[in-house]
Amino acid sequence: MKQFKGLRAARMPHRTIHLFRKGLRLHDHPALLAALESSEVVYPVYILDRKFMTSVMHIGALRWHFLLQSLEDLQKNLCRLGSHLLVIQGEYEPVLRDHVQKWNITQVTLDAEMEPFYKEMEANIRCLGEELGFEVLSVVGHSLYDTKRRCRPPDLDLAECYRVPLPADLKIPPESISPWRGGETEGLQRLEQHLADQGWVASFTKPRTIPNSLLPSTTGLSPYFSMGCVSVRTFFYRLSNIYAQAKHHSLPPVSLQGQLLWREFFYTVASATPNFTKMAGNPICLQISWYEDAERLHKWKTAQTGFPWIDAIMTQLRQEGWIHHLARHAAACFLTRGDLWISWEEGMKVFEELLLDADYSINAGNWMWLSASAFFHQYTRIFCPVRFGKRTDPEGQYIRKYLPVLKNFPSKYIYEPWTASEEEQKQAGCIIGKDYPFPMVDHKEASNHNLQLMKHVREEQYRTAQLTRDDTDDPMEMKLKRDHSEENVTKAKTARMTEQT
Ligand SMILES: Cc1cc2nc3c(=O)[nH]c(=O)nc-3n(C[C@H](O)[C@H](O)[C@H](O)COP(=O)(O)OP(=O)(O)OC[C@H]3O[C@@H](n4cnc5c(N)ncnc54)[C@H](O)[C@@H]3O)c2cc1C
């Protein structure tokens, strides 16, 4: 049926009668939806065939009233959408015959029903369709499942021949220590755990989540969405239910539903932008002469930058395959416009290889964002690889976990161990330059230099720079700023997703 519909749609849209029988509603109506999707014009019709109705069922006065009220309501709701319910009295066969011809109908859609008399009616309509040349599309919408459908499992003998291969079969190295386990079961468990805390869900404000907590401070559902183990639609509607019960809840772009809208945003732009994952030939992306420096790229990729915050992030990424959004910000900014001036495409490829949630649209979109190649325009604000992580984790627990070589440094040195004296380094059991590298760049110098380069690029390519510009520019931050001024909470400022120059 679907294939047929597809072929037809490729030729010409239908002129359709949607025949209401039961299904006297507009919401969740698969047959009506199919009619709308496949047609240039849809006639919403109810045939009031009293002869048929009274011959197949007993309808008391109360039910007649109820039916007429339902039709009245359907009429009103359709009117609200600029349409009309067309109620035609008479026997359904001649009524259909007349109107199919009168309106040049090419398709009749209707709810599939299971009662013998409705099945017979559908069969008769199909015969009429063959005679007059219209198609009939009936779709299950009255029960949860298609009662006719029987689905047998495959032969059990097949299971052994077609088993899931072991990693060793594919010569993939043994499982690392990643705490993430693949699959729908695990993904749904994670989903349920988060949804159980309705207060957390309702007040979720992305910029206030912590990039360097030892356990994810956000949902950690991205690997499951990325592989399709958990449905984003399920998540979205479950969130709607929670919001409906909450007195107050956060709003997009910072809310949880807002996060899904970001996903949708990047999917939408990616689907309409040629060469989305590349700089060359990508119309929304600034064309930048990034440095080609394999050695520096390698240092960044292998957590050898000499900046513990960046190296801890890159270690978590390599070991576990997931890092917090703001940690991604820090690592991406450092590689591109912040410190190394290396192309976002290189970073995107590394993320693609190492992230469990690697995703064509979201990865490229965010890399363009972070490198200020598109979407993000406050390019003068550059993350400091020392101060950024310190704000939410002053003791450096995150660094101690992922870079155990630094774990004995006092907190005041944990983000910049090269500033410790030789004696203090000895006491910490880690000599900078020997056990852990010196910083690969002078951040202040490098970021100032890159800022000038970026300024120049943007002046030269002003038109491209304007393409993805929004009035609010960074909606995540604008919303938060509004909230803050309303609440007059100055201390929340420190936990915000702000960048430091
Ligand atoms: C440089 C960079 C690269 C990234 N690459 C990817 C990637 O390849 N795959 C990926 O799924 N995310 C990517 N992100 C976006 C974001 O960091 C992750 O989606 C998020 O951190 C996943 O954690 P979570 O599931 O706990 O998110 P939550 O905050 O719990 O959000 C729920 C879901 O919303 C979606 N979402 C959240 N933030 C974003 C965002 N900024 N853009 C689009 N969708 C979002 C994700 O599907 C996420 O699972 C990238 C971000 C940056 C800065």
Describe the structure.
It is a single chain. This protein is α/β, with parallel strands linked by helices. The protein folds into 4 domains: 2-170, Rossmann fold, CATH 3.40.50.620; 185-272, Serine Threonine Protein Phosphatase 5, Tetratricopeptide repeat (Alpha Horseshoe); 294-443, DNA Cyclobutane Dipyrimidine Photolyase, subunit A, domain 3, CATH 1.10.579.10; 472-501. The chain is 50% helix and 7% strand. It has a 5-stranded parallel β-sheet, with helices on both faces. Helix 12 (256-272) crosses helix 17 (360-370) and helix 16 (344-354) packs antiparallel against helix 17 (360-370). It is elongated, with a radius of gyration of 30 Å. It binds flavin-adenine dinucleotide. Flavin-adenine dinucleotide (FAD) is lined by residues 206, 216, 218-222, 225-226, 259-260, 262-263, 266, 324-325, 328-329, 332, 351, 355, 357-359, 362-363, 366-367, 370.
